[in-house]
Design goal:
Elements lengths: L2 E5 L2 E4 L4 E8 L4 E10 L6 E6 L5 E3 L7 E6 L4 E6 L8 E10 L7 E4 L3 E6 L1
Parallel strand pairs: 2-11
Antiparallel strand pairs: 1-3, 3-8, 4-5, 4-9, 5-6, 7-8, 9-10, 9-11
């Protein structure tokens, strides 16, 4: 079974840092694009950052200059380094990945269970 397991969330003060990790495991032929989304209570889920299999990245304007997305293909893991955190960054952060399960089969999309990030002022 393919799973995305997230870790690294927690409670930090404004200006602090957290590093989120998401490891994919199971029967994986190829990891394609991976990304991070977040959702605060009462809000819609929004894209925070995405990284392609080749390492190209895109980040939401609200986190540019503060967050960095990266990946370790050998470990099937994507990271989100969050610096200079603000209270408005408080949300549940979800890992997302497009994963090919077999050669020449279109990829399927998977979600992690989410990890809580809380930033106090």
């Amino acid at each position: 079974q393919v799973q995305l397991v997230e870790s690294g969330g927690g409670l930090v003060q404004a200006g602090g840092s957290l590093r989120l990790s998401c490891a994919a495991s199971g029967s994986i032929y190829r990891l394609n694009a991976m990304g991070w989304y977040r959702q605060a209570p009462g809000n819609q889920r929004e894209l925070v950052a995405v990284i392609t299999s080749g390492g190209n990245t895109n980040l939401a304007d609200s986190v540019k200059g503060r967050f960095t997305i990266s990946r370790d293909n050998a470990k099937n893991t994507v990271y989100l380094q969050m610096d200079s955190l603000k209270p408005e960054d408080t949300a549940v952060y979800y890992c997302n990945a497009d994963i090919s399960l077999r050669f020449y089969v279109p990829p399927k999309n998977f979600w992690g269970q989410g990890t809580q990030v809380t930033v106090s002022s």
